[in-house]
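Researcher: Predict the fold of Small nuclear ribonucleo LSM2.
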Amino acid sequence: MLFFRYHRTIFYVVNALARTLTRYSYSFFKTLIDHEVTVELKNDIQLKGILKSVDQYLNIKLDDIQVVEELKYPHLSSVKNVFIRGSVVRYVHLPGASVDTQLLEDATRREAAAQQAKAK
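Model: Structure tokens for Small nuclear ribonucleo LSM2 follow.
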């Protein structure tokens, strides 16, 4: 019984963490609209383009896309804009100039402090 309770507690903690990360990711990506990003998919395709929209499920819409390895994926060479389901995204590569790391670190610290205060 203890084993089950332990895993159920971890499940709730992981779900709460996932919701917090999704909320942060969504807010963060909203600040990157109209910036160039590279999205790496779980099937190893990398698409570079202008981020036009993102939703709370981290679905992404890119315009003016280019396939990073165009010779490997020639069927994508004529595609100019895409909608990418959030569940198939592996990584989003961001240009360093468009990310304010200090602001991101401060927001992370504030959220961690709020979570600790909630837990007490």
